[in-house]
Amino acid sequence: MTLRLGDTVPNFTQASSEGEINFYDWAGDSWVVLFSHPKDYTPVCTTELGAVARLKSEFDKRGVKTIALSVDDVDSHMGWIKDIEETQNVTLNYPILADGDRKVSDIYDMIHPNSLNNLTIRTVFVIDPEKKLRLSITYPASTGRNFNEILRVIDSLQLTDKYSVATPVDWKDGDDCVIVPSITDPAELAEKFPKGYTPIKPYLRMTPQPNK
Ligand code: BEZ
């Protein structure tokens, strides 16, 4: 099954390092970062899972829960978690799904046999509180992810859901935004952008970030 942006993601019940998880119940009203990795006891994944644990306060601030997945079993996860905690100097503060039967990886299309046979590739899904897929990125096995970039995209999604703006190249929280092209009525522009805006081209109008 291919999941596309805007699709409602499927629910599942699966074992994890924190017991059985019904995904929708576990997610509740939160945003979710669901990310897969090829295998337990591998070097890149070890650093990634540590990094996500260290960023917990940043995810919490944004109302985001994190959950990892690989096709290894719970016993393997429990042993590996000890290594992650020891080597990355963190306490693992989120569950790792144990998807040995590939129930989740199949419905989320996390196995790409031409890349990695029988193993989950490195995917990241950002899912909103309505269970809609808002971001999906697929990385090669040899490249660790940048979870600060995932936080940056979540900032953009949460901002642009509330205000009629989009975020330009390399934007980060606090930077100027662009006004969506559909708004052209001067009265609406004045009402929505009381801080004003700079028209560079009719379609390229910069405005201070509305919620700052
Ligand atoms: C790793 O996480 O280190 C890794 C996993 C699969 C292939 C290569 C590296």
Give a description of the structure.
There is one protein chain. With 212 residues, the protein is of the alpha+beta class. It has 2 domains: 13-145, 3-Layer(aba) Sandwich (Glutaredoxin); 163-207, 2-Layer Sandwich (Antioxidant, Horf6, Chain A, domain 2). The chain contains 7 helices and 11 strands. The protein has a 5-stranded mixed sheet with strand order 5-4-3-6-7. It has a 4-stranded antiparallel sheet with strand order 8-9-11-10, covered by helices on one side. The longest helix has 16 residues, at 147-162. The mean pLDDT is 96. The site of benzoic acid (BEZ) has 8 residues, from helix 2.
Helix content: 25-40%
Radius of gyration: 19 Å
| Strand proportion | 15-25%
Strand arrangement, major sheet: 5-4-3-6-7
Give a list of the ligands: benzoic acid
CATH architecture of the largest domain, please?
3-Layer(aba) Sandwich
Unreliable segments of 5+ consecutive residues: none
Tally of alpha and pi helices: 7
Structural class by SSE content:
alpha+beta
Name the average pLDDT. Answer: 96
User: What is the general shape?
Assistant: elongated
CATH structural fold name of the largest domain: Glutaredoxin
Q: How would you name the CATH homologous superfamily of the largest domain?
A: Glutaredoxin
- Amino-to-carboxy terminus distance: 40 Å
The structural domain count equals 2
Number of strands: 11
Please give the largest β-sheet.
5 strands, mixed
Strand and helix order: EEHEHHEHEHEEHEEHEE
Assembly state here? single chain
